[in-house]
Each structure stands twice: as C-alpha cells, then as structure tokens.
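Q: Given only this backbone (307 positions), what sequence would you predict?
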C-alpha cells in the first residue's frame, strides 16, 4: 500500500494516524504512515529508529500536534491525522446557538439535544444535527469516544444526569456543565450517589469555560471554546499573551512562560512550563501545529516526548 492510499484510508475511516516524512538525512523524501495503535501501514522505518519515532508520533497524535524532530542522522516532520471532532450540546438555549455556530466554524460536527421541539429547530441551529427528546432516550444515538466533547447547558437533573452518566462511562475528551458553583456541588453529589469515584467526577468541568468576564451568550460561548482548545492541545495558561515573556508557540519544556509581575501561569503547569491534560504529559512536543524554523529545531537528545 502506498503512503497516499494509507493516508486516504485513515481519513475516510475517520481514525487517528500519523505521517512521518523524512526531510533530511539518508532517507530524504521517504514517508511512513502509522495508525492509532502505532502499527506501520505504509512505508518503512530505517533500522534502529522505529521504537523512538513511533512513540513520539503517538504522543503527538494524542494532542493532534505536528513537529519537526531530529533522530541523527535523520530529520523528520511528524504530522498527526485526526478525525473531525464531535460536539454534543445539551440544551437548545441562546448560549447553545452561539456555541454551535462558533464550533462549526472551528471544524466541530455539532449535535444539539433538547426535549423541547420549539427550541431545538433547524432555524435556530442551522449548523447542527438536532435530536429532539429527553436525553435518556436519545443519548444512545450519539457516539461518545475520544473525539467527543460534551457541553451541558440545560442544568436540570433530568437533562444532565443521563448524559453525565453516559459520558463518564466513555472516553470523551471533555465534559463541561453550565451552572453556579452550588449547582456544580449538587451535580457532583448526585454523581457520587450514582457510584462514580472522585477520579471520575473530576472530569466534569463546572462552571464551564475560562474566566474572561463573559456576559453575553456569544461571549460565554467563546469562554467555553477557549477552555476546550486548551484541553484539546494540552497547553495554555488562559492569561493574556501581552506581558508574558517567551515564545507564543511553545515547542519544548524549556520554553517557559513567564507571567507578568505578580501574575500566575495558571493552567500552564508547574513553573510555567507547558501544561498537559490531566493524566498525561506533552513532554517536548510542538504546540499548535507550529513547525520549528531552520536552526531552531529540537536538538539531538532533546526528543523526550512522554505519554
């Protein structure tokens, strides 16, 4: 199978994968395609570098990142392949309208769930698939896997609890819930009563979104999508880039973020280095798909990506 056929197959099946292109060294121009398990499906690795390159490609794949990396005498560009991300919005409210619109523009495939047919309409949500019915009846029609992002805006137990139960029993990437801190406390209490562990309920982000002072539905939607973006790529501080020293596009752990005097790096992780999603580590992976310019690539021995 050719590299092009392998890439096309991964994209058509909407799976995760990775393309390793040799951009310098003795194998210049060759490509290796691996699937989400790390299996080579096209091309071949030079002797002796397969385990390291595969391990690094899988880490980058987890974070949907691309990176130029060196494995002397080889320099490669590792490009991650990712399927379209799915967003499930529970509650056809005003914030949901803005969220669905913005998310669609960002490439998410959006599904809106609401029991109220008057609210869940194609006119209000032209960019979304609409499921009208009580969540416990329709949640089974939604795919809940590692590419799914769940945002619950209709914060009443009959709307929330069936979705939370299904989401927490699945590997969805994100679970965010609208509501006050008191509402969140009550929500978590119900989940404990349902038998979920503290580790399980720690996945539920509520109140949802970043603190940007949002007031309007559109601003709240931006806040939610900003938090989702931080989770998706495994880094970010939530702080203004103005006044923060260091690279805008972080590429290595040593690319520290220095906050303004008296500030905090927040979610960026200890010491202002790149933060990782809960339970993982981005290590030396590049961020935001940014490729190191010539002369600024990872140096030999710096390829320390870790899962």
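A: Predicted residues:
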């Amino acid at each position: 199978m050719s590299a092009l056929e392998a890439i096309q197959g991964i994209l058509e099946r909407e799976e995760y994968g990775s393309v390793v292109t040799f951009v310098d060294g003795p194998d210049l121009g060759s490509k290796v395609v691996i699937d989400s398990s790390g299996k080579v499906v096209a091309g071949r690795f030079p002797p002796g570098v397969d385990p390291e390159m595969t391990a690094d490609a899988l880490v980058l794949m987890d974070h949907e990142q691309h990176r130029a990396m060196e494995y002397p005498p080889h320099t490669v560009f590792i490009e991650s392949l990712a399927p379209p991300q799915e967003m499930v919005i529970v509650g056809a409210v005003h914030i949901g309208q803005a969220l669905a619109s913005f998310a669609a523009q960002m490439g998410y495939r959006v599904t809106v769930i609401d029991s109220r047919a008057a609210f869940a309409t194609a006119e209000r949500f032209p960019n979304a698939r609409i499921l009208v019915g009580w969540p416990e009846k329709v949640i089974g029609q939604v795919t809940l896997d590692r590419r799914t992002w769940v945002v619950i805006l209709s914060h009443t137990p009959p709307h929330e609890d069936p979705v939370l139960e299904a989401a927490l029993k699945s590997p969805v990437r994100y679970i965010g819930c609208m509501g006050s801190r008191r509402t969140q406390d009550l929500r978590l209490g119900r989940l404990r009563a349902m038998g979920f562990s503290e580790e399980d309920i720690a996945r539920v982000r509520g109140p949802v979104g970043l603190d940007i002072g949002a007031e309007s539905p559109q601003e709240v939607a931006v806040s939610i999508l900003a938090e989702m973006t931080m989770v998706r790529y495994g880094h970010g501080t939530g702080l203004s880039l103005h006044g923060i020293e260091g690279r805008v596009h972080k590429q290595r752990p040593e690319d520290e973020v220095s906050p303004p005097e008296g500030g905090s790096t927040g979610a960026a992780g200890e010491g202002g280095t790149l933060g990782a999603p809960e339970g993982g580590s981005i290590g030396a992976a590049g961020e935001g798909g940014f490729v190191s310019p010539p002369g600024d690539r990872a140096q030999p021995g710096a390829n320390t990506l870790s899962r």
